[in-house]
Amino acid sequence: MTHATCLPPDLHQWVSRHVASMDTAAVTDASWPRGDSRVWRVRAVHGEIFVKLYPSTEKYEREVQGCEHATRALAPHEAPRLLASDPQRPAVILSALPGGVVRGLPLEVAEEQRVHRLAGDLLRRWHGTDKPISDREHRRIMESVTAQAEEAALILKSLGNQLSPAERNLVRDTARDLPDLARALPLAYRHGDYSPRNWLWDEATGHHGLIDFEEAASGLAVEDLVWLCGAAWPTRPDLREAFLAGYGRLLTSTEQRALVLLASRLGVSYLSTGLTKTDTVLIDRGRTVLQHMVRAPR
Fold this sequence. Notes:
Aminoglycoside 3'-phosphotransferase, Chain: A, domain 2, five-stranded antiparallel beta sheet, alpha+beta, Phosphorylase Kinase, domain 1
């Protein structure tokens, strides 16, 4: 997805009221190719800032609440700070953090293990900072898990003949077992997209950072491990070991089984969407995740 690098005029006016000496010639589109939000990196007199424009009020509110949670849970260098917000646009201005996005960085094995250990430690503190979960939120979480199980059942019915027998059994287990498993799992305030594309690594200082809170919400704590379980850990058990060392504990057998089923639901969803849209990237991603989860301990 390609966007113009300049800020829309009304957004530019709003940003200029909050940011001193903004350099209009140094605006860079930093949007994620498959994302719905618009993000710009802007140079200002006191350093860089990020401007983010959301497709919905819900994502905006989650980002704001996520920034507030980060202020309580993390050190100043570990998460951006909210400099200004406007629910009417809806948009925010965020401070910049040092370092680069971990996804795609050419890290040596030892350094990559260190990054994953720090990521586990950061998530432990993110999950460990109390944020009360109301009865209404608890019902929403359980409804979300039930909806994921129902999605798996529908996809199994429509695509079952395109899955191997082992994959069909796994998706069937997901549809049948996930809601009951969820009732026994710890709840937490989740980041919602905890993966290397939202991690920052500053080699010079050894600091690990976290960005992008627009999916943050209360949910199953183990949901923050789904991407890692489906994409990173199957081929890199050393990264799983490093991450869990930072997280401070191993997963329980119930958490491990639920994690595999959640990752399987995500994989079969990728596959279904990819086949519907003839998107080979999603098709390959879905098949890879399912193949990994068939072999995963559960």
